[in-house]
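User: My instructor asked us to take a sequence, write out its structure as tokens, and then describe one feature of it. I'm not sure where to start. Here is the sequence I was given:
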Amino acid sequence: MPYGVAFLFILMMSAGITIDWRKLRYFTYRLPELLIGLVFLFAIFPIGQWLIARWLVTDDQFLYGLVFASLCPVAIVAPYFSNLIEADDEFAFVLMIWSMILCPLIAPIMLKILLQPSVALNVLPLTKYMLLLVTTPIALSYAIDRVFPRCKVILRPLLGLLNMGSLSVLIFILFGTAVGRLNLHYTPINDLFVLLFLMFLQDFGVLVVARRIFSFWLSPEIVGALSISLSMRNVAIAAGVLLFYDPKASFPAALGFIAHAFLFTFISMRRRSKWFRPV
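Assistant: Let's start with the prediction itself. The structure tokens for your sequence are:
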């Protein structure tokens, strides 16, 4: 189980290496839309998902894991998929960076507000842990970009294989730990389907709702980037952090990988449809 954090660290660092740091000049790019995205990212959608989960999930630890997963930052691949549907990938990039910076500060506060009666974890060490996990690999990847640019050129062709291998091992550890610690034979099958449904709702439901909401008053390129970014949470952070503190609570976030696999495939296959393409 402890090695799961190491592979998550590798994933975060390799993602940082792929970032084009020259785009940071757009750090306040489209500030009003950025603020709207952050409000929906860390408040509107998590609260909505918490209301639904609280009605369907009776286990406090599963509920904690679900809410934590809904408060994760934007996934690293969001700018790529934004570009794939011809949306504003630079906006998606800036939103991703801001969400990574703010997540360790906002997520513990929201967890305490929403789950005060049933909080199972100590928020302070959790905040420190998340801050270290998010900022350190990004800072190291930035240092590599600035100090050893040649190293970045060498590593880039290997990152696909490295990411696939690290993610495979991480998922193996997450599900293996969950099965070993939870003894799923005693977990009602209905609970597992409910958890999986809620993780699919966090991906596909947010994608649909975000497009419907924002299409009335934002440009198509921003609508595409926002809907993609808000529907893709970096659930590996929640799974990795909770795996260390509470393996049972990490299980919903681990199921998020399944929802992500379907979401990524759906977007890739339907990227040229009228629903995705700007009009």
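For the description part of your assignment, you could build on this observation: The chain has twelve helices and no strands. Try explaining in your own words what that tells you about the chain.
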